[in-house]
Amino acid sequence: MEKIVTALWGVDNARLLTELPVALRAAGCSGIRINVRDRAVEAGAGLVQKWQDPQQEAVVQYWLPSANAIFRGDADAAIAAVSERFHAWLVAESTIIANSEHPPTKGERTWGWSQASFITFRSDLSHAEAVAVWHSHHTRVAIDTQSNFEYVQNLIVRPLTEGAPRYGAFVEECFPIEALTDPHAFFDAVGDQAKFEANLNAMMDSCGRFIQFGRIDIIPTSQYDFG
Prior knowledge:
There is one protein chain. The chain is of the alpha+beta class and 227 residues long. The protein is built from five helices and eight strands. Strands 1-3-2-8-5-7-6-4 form an eight-stranded antiparallel β-barrel.
């Protein structure tokens, strides 16, 4: 099985959440997850970091026995039918924190909100060096300094569509809804200014060690799992 992450532009959320899961299952896909920018996460606009202009409006994640183009055609056609354009990447998934606190219900919005992050690695590091920092250092920092109750890393193996932005990874983290607007809630430091400052500084320092700022797209989303 191979996992595919797809960014979509020009979408109708209603069609995306009703028509696309059915079409993807008919195309042989499983583990279907759709992340959408909607009214439920509008308050988190201040968390957006933008490289692409216009920026992606939704993310579709799914698994196929093979991501090879000759076996992916029906899935691509299903996504094209509900968007103006899209780009896709083959990824290697690593679940750092599984969502056991607020497990999703099939077809329903997951509790809280999901931060969907497309990141690019620093250009002055080799790919191996950047991944080593991400996996061996930053992962622990992200666990220890945030209120995330789900944390999934997706290392991009290769782009599947021509002209796809050259990201290095896609990361998804779920947070309590309060973290949309309260930095102290985001950094697991409600009522503790010293802890907030320590966690914020640790996170920013760690991100700077491997991420190429200015070439990232970070968006707040609502998460839907369809199995």
